Amino acid sequence: MKTEFATFGGGCFWGVEKFLQEIPGVIDAVSGYAGGNTIDPTYSDVCGGRTGHAEVVNVEFNPTVISFKDLVKKFLKTYRDTNEVNLNSSSQYRSIILYRDEQQKSEIETAFAEFYAENTKIVTTQVRKLSKFYEAEPYHQDYYGSCRVEASSV
């Protein structure tokens, strides 16, 4: 089976991770950091606002079950931002989609166009090229709100 990857940020990564893991076709969702300049950031670094990284989730998915564009559309329905401040924000909680190549960038543009065809609100979710994804510390993985979920019970 050929899999693909997508990276999304929409606030605290725990909620985004849970949301994405529940989508049919998603194989794995891993919390981490991306979109900034600091090499090998820690949670403390990112929360301190010194890195430019967002809390993001790196998703492995089966494109024969769900397309990248459909993942983007699902993300936009739930985690889009409409506040102009988000466009230039470097907050770790900003709404952001990070693409890997021109194909993904094109599919993001199509998903935005389709979203606008059905909605009137402007979307200020950032779209940036992914330079590197940094996996968050182990205690941030599979963490849903205030309770940790063991992998064997998922």
Structure described in brief:
The protein has 154 residues and is α+β, with helices and mostly antiparallel strands. 28% of the residues lie in helices and 25% in strands.
3D architecture notes:
This protein has helices at residues 13-21, 43-47, 68-79, 102-118; strands spanning 4-10, 26-34, 54-61, 95-99, 126-129, 134-135, 143-144, 147-148. The strands form two sheets. It has a six-stranded mixed sheet with strand order 5-4-1-3-2-6, with helices on one face. Strands 7-8 form a two-stranded antiparallel ribbon. The chain has one domain (4-145): Peptide Methionine Sulfoxide Reductase, Chain A (2-Layer Sandwich). The protein is an alpha+beta fold and 154 residues long. Helices cover 28% and strands 25% of the residues. It contains four helices and eight strands, in the order βαβαβαβαββββ.
Q: Low-confidence stretches at least 5 residues in length (pLDDT < 50)?
A: 145-154
State the assembly state of the protein chains: single chain
Radius of gyration: 15 Å
Query: Going by CATH, what is the homologous superfamily?
Result: Peptide methionine sulphoxide reductase MsrA
Number of domains: 1
- Indicate the CATH architecture: 2-Layer Sandwich
Assign an overall shape.
globular
Kindly estimate the percentage of residues that lie in beta strands according to DSSP. Answer: 25-35%
Helix content: 25-40%
Question: What is the averaged pLDDT score?
Answer: 88
What's the total count of β strands?
A: 8
- Strand-and-helix sequence, N→C? EHEHEHEHEEEE
What characterizes the major β-sheet? 6 strands, mixed
- Distance between the ends: 22 Å
Number of helices: 4
The CATH class name reads Alpha Beta
- Would you give the CATH topology? Peptide Methionine Sulfoxide Reductase, Chain A
Strand arrangement across the biggest beta sheet: 5-4-1-3-2-6
